[in-house]
Amino acid sequence: MHSQKAPKNGLTCKMVLQAVGKVLRKSKTKPNGKKAPAEEKKHYLEPEYTKVRVVDFDLKDLVALPAREIDLNEWLASNTTTFFNLINLQYSTISEFCTGDTCQAMTAYNTIYYWYDERGKKTKCTAPQYVDLVMTFVQKLVTDEDIFPTKYGKPFPSTFESVVRKVFRYLFHVLAHIYCAHFGQTVALELQGHLNTLYTHFIVFVRHFNLIEPKETCIMDDLSQVLCETHNHVTER
Ligand SMILES: [Zn+2]
Q1: Most CB atoms within 10 A, among 34, 57, 131, 234?
Q2: How do the domains of the chain map onto residue ranges?
Q3: 101 to each of 10, 105, 123, 180, how far by Cα in Å?
Q4: For 44-64+71-231, CATH number?
Q5: How far does the centroid of ligand 1 lie from the alpha carbon of residue 12, in Å?
Q6: Residues, CB within 5 angstroms of ligand 1 (ion)
Q7: pTM (global) more than 0.85
């Protein structure tokens, strides 16, 4: 991760210090409630943050199926694995701050995500437990040769698309939690450029292949709108 440190892209040292100061001030006043209060200001929507990204190019070209020779399922499989690895890595940068004490439930604003076990039983768990369950679940799937076949000629199962949808929904929960509960720490680490780029790529991909129900992603629509719309207008590096 350190070798991929985000370029500052116009974010001056002064701005970083201001951002860190804001984070520190915020943490002092943060109530000890079980979940983040809904009225909390969404710092990640401020232009000084949304303009920071690692790469600027047209993500719509990047997400589309690149050539007729590539099978749609192959393309979905390869992107699923890539997003899983990148989101796992992004979460790992703030995982020391995401504990059973700080995040007693898997929240994104007023939404609490519950884990459903293999029998469909709903269980409430802390955010780090939930993320661990997600990552373990996805790791198991993407390395299962019957579900994500890598050998030439081995077909994808008929359930493949529904599996992919499930994985993307879970990964979205992790991204939403990072923004809603750990954005200040991400800024302090100067990794908001990575997070914004990853999130934008993820949302553009999800929309292109219609992988998550809009009612699921609507809690982050304000950010998606800012990042995905402005992205197409940014041409300078
Ligand atoms: Zn957390």
Answers
A1: 131
A2: 44-64+71-231
A3: 36, 9, 18, 16
A4: 1.20.140.30
A5: 28
A6: 98, 103, 127, 181
A7: no
